[in-house]
Design brief:
It contains nine helices and eight strands.
Amino acid sequence: MSSQPADRRPPIARHIGALVALGVVASTLLIAPPAAAASGPPDIARLLASLPVTTENNRGYSRERFDDWTTRNGCDTRQWVLIAEAQGGTRRGCDMRGARWFSYLDGLTTRNSSTFDIDHTVALAEAWGSGARNWNRARRDAYANDLGYRDALIATSASSNRSKSDSPPTTWRAPRAAGQCRLVQAWIATKWRWGLSVDAREKEGLVREL
């Protein structure tokens, strides 16, 4: 079995969980970072300040405009996320045996991965309204299957994923305080990574959260 695509990430991206706590994000191999970021990983407040502010437009959105999950090196995107986030256990092909998964949003843990969903931190509908409607299909599919930034796609409890739905962290709060902090930073980092916009109310809320 070939190694998983995430192995291509630089060390800073592989350790993004620790870096998020410090308020920094990594550029990755899937898309080029903005030129302004070339000198080093900027902090989250600077990322937020750099995001374009526009009115959100969800006209024409349909989940079918994004393709998830695609297969790479024999495993689909859901399986790669579960492999990357597994705590302990052993890998058998695309499955993890004897592993645990932790939902950072609410602090729940499971040994049965089927009880966890894979959540787009910035939901597909939100991405569409924030700029993805102008992308071609290949770029939308790359967004829906982004394994280059660990917090773009996360394994989380089904209850938190469905409660969060398409909401930003300014209107839906993670049940766990540390989860809310990480979600806010991951939201901003994901929007910056993909060149997505924020609306004025969303930006005000994110500034308050930071």
